[in-house]
Amino acid sequence: MTAWALWAVAVAVVAALPAVLSPFQIVQLTVFMIYSLLALSLDLIWGFGGILSFGQAAFFGVGGYVYGIVGINSGSTTLALIAGVAGAAGLAALLGYFTFYGRVGSMYFAVITLTVTLILHQVMGTTADPRYAVGQARLGGYNGMTNIPSLALEVPGRAPLTLDPVQLFYVVGGLLLLVLALTRALVRGSFGRVLAAIREDELRTELLGYDPRWRKLVTFAISGSIAGLAGGLFAGWGNFMNPQVFSMFQSALVVIWVMVGGRSTLYGAVVGTLVVQSLTNYLGTASVTYTTVALGTALVVIVLLFPRGLVPAIEGAVRRVSGRRPPAPEFAR
Amino acid sequence: MDFVAVTAFGIVYTIATLILLALGLAVIFGMMGVINLAQAEFLMVGAYTVLIVTAHGASVWVGIAVAPVVVGLLGLVIERTIIRFLYGRILDTMLATWGLSLGLVGLVTLVFGPTTEGIATPLGHVTVGEYRLSVYSVFVILMAFAVLGLTYGLFNYTRFGLVARATMQNPNMVSALGVNPARVYMGTFAFGAALAGLGGGVMAPLTGVVPTLGLAFIAKIFITVIVGGPVILLGTTTAGVVLGLVESLVSYGSTPIYGQVAMLAFAIILLRLLPQGISGFWRRGV
After folding, report:
1. Phi and psi for A224 in degrees, rounded to 5?
2. Burial of B73: CB neighbours in 10 Å, binned 0-12, 13-18, 19+
3. A143 domain-assigned
4. To which H or E segment does residue A153 belong?
5. How far, in Å, CA of B201 to CA of B191, rounded?
6. What predicted TM-score, i.e. pTM, was given to this entire model?
7. How far is A157 from chain B (nearest CA, A)?
8. How many domains is chain A partitioned into structurally?
9. pLDDT value at position A324?
10. Between residues 214 and 273 of chain B, which touch chain A (CB distance below 8 Å)?
11. Are strands A137-138 and B125-128 parallel, antiparallel or unpaired?
12. CATH class in words for B2-278
């Protein structure tokens, strides 16, 4: 029952952290957890579906923008968050329909998702003119969308209660653990087993009577909705969205989080995000340019030296030193 | 009448630039199967080469001649240090070249700053009725088709082209016949990089030079090569014609951004209908 013990520890840690950390650290950690959700969405489709999507940043951005548009117009942040998730899931499903049902190869798929992200970046960048607005919400071009309402607790019949940083931390932390548990259940259940079979040998799985296109589509839509949830939470956290979320840099970051944490573990995505983001913060955000160079170099070095991910490589080294049996061989992609 | 002529010229120009920029990728991605996400940065380095050469007082033409040499050498170094370890590992290649792309953009920004530098467009204008056309655009169109012809000739009518195509098909057989496949890969990659450098150099006076120059093109050129399909050069050319037509027609009707969106949407729907790309459809037809 070690798994249950680990979950209990995770819940306890999230519950206890606000008592230990400063308010600033709590706000920082909240956004790291939001990013962890985004990394989780990529690990689901990449680690378990075997499909590398460069478009998670696009779903994140769409989730955030939809949250902003609905939140500003309706005033209800719960509705906005749901709309954000639905918008991102819808985009993912649409994209998935054209690519999976068109039987586009996995590398073409990766390129197409990247292309969609870059196009969104350019399109949102041209919306600076005030006439680009949805109801009250101005899209704002590269200046971004401002005055997005903070996430609030809405109980029918009462005035909405805007969450303070600690409450927001608990909401985001709770959602992260919930999504982690749900995705874990998904990949361990029969659906996940078929998904793994598709990853290993798509043709053989299809000949056994499963429809890989449908399952890939569903997985991709779920992955997109998780990224959209992260985007909505991000917009509710920072009250701000701009086209930078669709940039190459942001898209690369998601992949790096998962690569550092190691694929196909789910928790690795969370660990990778926390490690990379803490390091980035520690190194200082003095110059975005240096960070870009460092990020690019990190990506090349990890691919060349630790193709299975940084955390699994360290785990393997520790196991070898301590003389325990090596982990089961990784599935071929 | 003049309007029709000028519009037609604009469409041909859009198509020609698409082919010119995508040609290097057609060789590296289409032929070799290396998904090089740093391809757009090869264009950018080519453009910067022209900028540096003109800043030292030489003419634009010298810059355009030097650009493919510089970028070809850069491609050679990158192939030897990174790409050659990753053949056959497609997704890893993507990730590594993506890192390379970020790194190159960052480095160039550090050295030259994030500002857009202009290069004076040579050759001046001609007047067509009420409209003025840049003669340099005519040069770009001629250049695109000349480079396309040269590449086609190189791969179809020379010994290097024959060996290169054979290596891409069956490296073991080529190796058994006494050719070192590693050197062929190296040469082909460098050639693809040089084509990109040339493309970037030719476009530099028209687009302006900025470290993030590649971002405007990367999506377009990948889509063009993917839509082109397995018959690399002719497929890419056909895809360039079709997609360039869609892009320029929508651009004339609205804005260039919507032109790009329409082109992308068209490409994705096209891939749903013809998953093997345009030339895959030919092959099945034959």
Report:
1. -65, -40
2. middle
3. yes
4. strand A152-153
5. 15
6. 0.81
7. 44
8. 1
9. 60
10. 215-216, 218-219, 222-223, 226, 255, 257, 260-261, 264, 268-269, 271-273
11. unpaired
12. mainly alpha
Residues of chain B with pLDDT under 70: 1, 128-129, 281-286
Task: Supply the DSSP string of B46-111, one letter for each residue.
Answer: HHHHHHHHHHTT--HHHHHHHHHHHHHHHHHHHHHHTGGG-TT-HHHHHHHHHHHHHHHHHHHHHH
pLDDT at A1 over 70: no
Q: Do B92 and A106 form a contact (C-beta atoms < 8 A)?
A: no
Domain assignment present for residue A145? The answer is: yes
What are B114-162's pLDDT values in tens digits? 778 777 777 777 776 677 777 888 888 998 989 988 988 888 888 888 8
Virtual CA dihedral for A255, A260, A265, A270, nearest 10 degrees?
-80
Q: In this structure, are residues A230 and A240 in contact, taking their beta carbons and an 8 Å threshold?
A: no
Report whether B13 contacts B140 (CB < 8 A): yes
End-to-end CA distance of chain A: give it in Å, rounded.
31
* Domain assignment present for A179: yes
ipTM of the complex: 0.76
Inter-residue contact B45 to B197 (CB < 8 Å): yes
Q: Indicate which of A54, A91, A103, A108 best probes the interface with B, i.e. most B CBs within 10 Å of its own CB.
A: A108
Is A46 domain-assigned? yes
How do strand A133-134 and strand A161-162 relate by DSSP bridges?
A: unpaired
Structural domain boundaries, residue A142 = 22-246
- Chain B residue with minimum CA distance to A332: B89
C-alpha dist (Å) from residue B84 to A28, A293, B163:
40, 22, 18
What span, in angstroms and rounded, lies between the C-alpha atoms of A294 and A303? 14
Q: Which chain B residue is nearest to residue A112, measuring alpha carbons? A: B223
Taking the C-alpha atoms of residue B27 and residue B8, their distance in angstroms, rounded to an integer, is 29
